[in-house]
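Q: What does the predicted 3D structure of MYND-type domain-containing protein look like?
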Amino acid sequence: MAANIIVPKDIPPIFSVLGLACYHCLKERSATSPLLQCGCRHVWYCGPECQKAQWPQHKHLCYAFRAMEMKYAKELLDHYKLVREDPVTHIAEDERELEECLDKVGCLAMDKLEELLKRGLSSDECNVVAWEPHCLACGRSDAIFRIEAYLGNHEPRSPGLKPCPDCGFSFFCSDLHWHTVMSKHQVEPCRYGRENLTQCEMNKISLQDARLSQVVTPGDNVGNFLWLPERTVTSWTSLRSINWIDYESDLAKAYSSHSWRGLSFLKALVRAATENLSMPMTILWSLEVLNDYNDAWTRKDVLNIHVIGASSVEILGARVFEEILHRVPLLKTLKLTFIGPDLKFLTGPNPTVTEMKTCSQCSCFDRRMIHDHHPKYPFNLSFPSCPPIPSSRTYHEFIAEQGNRFIKPDLAIAFDSVCCKGHIASWTHTYQAMFQRKIPSIFTAYNKEEAETEAVLFSGVGINLHPALGPRANPWGSWIWKPDARKLTRFYAVNSWISGGFR
């Protein structure tokens, strides 16, 4: 039975949320094409026509923003009073402390907006709040300056945030604050970036990637660039001897009509391709390492992979898992079982089994890819008169419900589980069950900090991690590094780190 995949609507890319492009048509701001700020002062448009076209979608949030700044001004500002800063210059003394403040203010703003709207925020509305520009030195946004002025009955201390003149992605509220952070932003390697790049350089790459998404997949975010080469290798090749550059030639052929754009475009294509391909490639690399580089697993007829905590990323990018078939030519059937509470929003409330369409080469040789979905609901809602049919909520519940029918997979993987931040008790039961049953397992993380925290959690319950599997950088993590919302200098990437692997 085929799953009915529910595809969420597109959300504006990050640079439109930051006021660098029209929130409706995504046309970038320039010296000759300035943008007009909406009355709520949170989004920008290239002109009245775009603002009018967007108004039915934006008007309720627009009114809510204005009401929030008046009704909850003191609550929003109180968090800033807990940040240690110079009493004269208002420059924050501790970056982590300031980021904690920004996180709390962002969460509070979302809660109050939902209260005013009497509904939950959509994904694009959440982005408007989360990506609100802040000064790198004091953490204040234009909204906070307005609130301070309103409560203190004085003019705002800043006429408005200004973007970095080089990258346009980071902001400052005054010349003094810019001179304070300029070296850290433009000269020093970013602590939370990659390859010793500065925050300014990382920002410019992020902007290139966002622009690319409009060329290749108009209207989508770069994360939705879904590509894999339609070729099957003749024999298994160890991933130790290759890296993401291996895909350059295939991408150059696939996008030969764009060759006039040059090498920088091709490199951006490679980065974009890694976002989704990091899933199958991390699976293959994990299988290779967990099997201590014994390639007997590559000669199996069937590979059984469990994807735990599955969400929209895995379901909407489902086609890329075919790369496992392409790189393991002796494999006849790839079975992926997706387990996770969020699946009910994507595949419906009931368990479904889908045979995925594969490329012509795979189809010709009867090579199959089966996707098995297990959503949250514990019974079949389609037939309420029938007896309840058990369906998993979490992976440890899935294991228990399967009982003697449970077949140990070749690998169980949790992509960017964030198991150190939410539902910790439930995740603990899950990875304990995986370890006790000796299931070959791997957990990935968005960044080094998360990976190291999760590795401590694993060790804390007696799990012995494979010495080559974490915490460590993932050689097959995404090359799309994105600024972390409500953080001043941090970046993250899909599957960029391995938290831990065990069997």
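A (community wiki): The structure tokens above were generated from the sequence. The longest strand covers residues 302-308. Residues 1-8, 218-223, 377-392 have pLDDT under 50 and may be disordered.
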